[in-house]
Design brief:
The protein is an alpha+beta fold. It is built from 3 helices and 6 strands. The protein has helices at 6-13, 18-34, 102-113; strands at residues 39-43, 46-51, 54-61, 65-71, 83-84, 89-95. Helix 2 (18-34) crosses helix 3 (102-113). The chain is globular.
Length: 116
């Protein structure tokens, strides 16, 4: 059962750039598909997704990108050059016009959250 937090819905609705708004909403659904019992909330002014009280993922936007961070990422095998950050959390920055492999992200979120 998907539980959407109204604050997160409001945050996503207020993203100014239509492509960023649509992408952020898609990433939110990826997290919900990967983790059906995920808890979402706004923290540090961006949507955070938690499993068993621990961070699983975060969505944030900047001027020209949407960032998607996967936590607990130490054991993940990641595609070369797509993600950055320390071993425990990896971020992909998606810019306008770049294709997003949502199946791949879904799989990575699932794997990372297995041990949360």
């Amino acid at each position: 059962m998907m539980t959407h937090n109204q604050e997160v819905s409001d945050f996503l609705a207020e993203i100014k750039e239509p492509w960023q708004r649509e992408l952020a909403a898609r990433l939110r659904e990826v997290v919900h598909q990967a983790l059906p019992d995920v808890l979402e909330r706004i923290q540090y002014k961006k949507p955070h997704f938690l499993k068993n009280g621990k961070y699983a993922a975060v969505i944030s936007t900047s001027k020209d990108a949407v960032s998607f961070t996967i936590f607990n990422a130490t054991g993940l095998i990641l595609p070369e050059g797509l993600f950055e950050g320390p071993p425990e959390r990896k971020t992909i920055k998606i810019r306008q016009g770049h294709e997003v492999d949502t199946d791949q992200l879904l799989s990575l979120v699932k794997q990372a959250a297995e041990t949360l």
